[in-house]
Every structure is written in structure tokens, then in C-alpha cells.
Design brief:
By secondary structure, the protein is an all-alpha fold. The protein has one domain. It is built from four helices and no strands. Helix 2 packs antiparallel against helix 3. It is elongated. The two termini are 35 Å apart.
Length: 121
Amino acid sequence: MDLIARSEAPLIARPLYALPVGHRWGRRPGLTLIGDATHLISPFAGEGANLAMLDGAELAQAIVADGDDIEAALASYEAAMLPRSERAASYTGAGLDMRFNDQALRPLVDFFQSVRSGVEA
């Protein structure tokens, strides 16, 4: 709290947006989504930009692999992307919960201590 109180600049509250974990949509011919449009998640697992780049690469690979059948390419891309997005959304949701809860940062400190213990073992 002292860090915020002693800051030279005013605090700017920024909202966090996220789609619900497991968010899906029905197939639409000739249409799919990539990046944040597909998996809008909080930044607390460092997954967002990586997912967006992977989406683009996998969509391109699916289009090349399926040649003229764009519907097969889109279906193939979504079949891999949607479960991956759901896992990432779960991770970021857990990260958000570790930082914003009634125990302050204790769950986050415990997490890093458990990771550190695992590395030292």
C-alpha cells in the first residue's frame, strides 16, 4: 500500500476482462477467431501473446495442410485451439485468484515457495 501512496503519479485503475473458462461458439462457415478474440484472458499466467502467435501459426498450417478445403482447415484449427485456450484460461484464472483474494498475497508467496522447493529438490 505504501508503494501506491508514495507514488509520484496517480493510480490509474485498469479493468481486467476475461471470457469465461470453457467459452465456445458454434462453427460458422468461412469464419474463425484468433488471439484475444478467441481467448480473452487475464495476464496472470503470461499466456496471451504466446497463444495469439500460436493461433496464427496453427491456422496457417491447417490452411496449407487442407489445401482448398477451408472448412476442414478451420475445424482442424479450432479442434486444437479451443481446448488449449480453456487450459490457459484456467491457469490465468488461478493466477488472478492468487493475487486478488482476502488473504492478500499469501497464496502467491506460497506458490513461488513451492516452485522454489521443487527446483531445489
